[in-house]
Amino acid sequence: MKISMNIFITGNPRCGKSTLIQKIRNEISDQKVSGFITPEINVQNRRKGFKIIDLTSKKEEVMASVDIKSGPKVSKYKVNVKGIDKVIEKFLQSYESSKYVVIDEIGKMEFYSKKFRETIKMVLDSDKTVLATLSKQFVNQYRDKGKIYFLKRENFDQIYEQVLNQLRASG
C-alpha cells in the first residue's frame, strides 16, 4: 500500500527541471536516495545526446545520441534501449534500501524501454517518496499519480521551496 508520495516537475524544455531536481537532491543527500538522471552530452557547446546514469552505482550509458546509427528515433537522436535497460538493472539493485527515488526524467526516449516503463509503474506504486521530472506530453497520463508542479524560470525559487517543504513534511 502506498503511504509516501509522488512529486512531478514538468515544464517547457530548458526551464530548469533538471537543475531543480539536482538542487533538491543536494538538500536530501543525507537520506538514502536512489534513482537515475539523464544529463545532456555536449560537444563544443552542441547537444549531441543524453546519458542515463544510476545515482548509486554511477553506472552510465549513452541513452540517445546523434551518433547512434539504429534504434527508435526521437527528434534527431536515436535511442539506445539496451543502455537504458542496463542502467535500470543497476537502479533496481539499490532501490529497495532507499527512502527517496529521484528520476530525471520520465520522457519519450526512456519510454522506448519496456523495463523502464515497468520500473516506473512499480516505483510510483511503492511506499517510496518519488521526485521525478515529467515530460509535458505525459502530464495527463500521470495526473492522478501524484502532485504535479509546472516549473517556469520565474517560479523556480517558489517551486523549489514548495517541493522541499513537501519532502520535509513527509518525513
Question: How would you summarize this macromolecular structure in one to three sentences?
Answer:
The chain is of the alpha/beta class.
Structural class per helix/strand content? alpha/beta
> What amount of the residues lies in strands?
25-35%
Helix percent reads 25-40%
User: Main sheet?
Assistant: 10 strands, mixed
Sequence stretches where pLDDT stays below 50 over 5 or more residues: none
Average pLDDT works out at 93
**How would you sum up the global shape?**
globular
Tally of DSSP β-strands? 10
Count the DSSP helices: 5
In whole angstroms, how far apart are the ends?
Answer: 17 Å
| SSE ordering | EHEEEEEEHEHEHEH
As a whole number of angstroms, the C-alpha radius of gyration is 15 Å
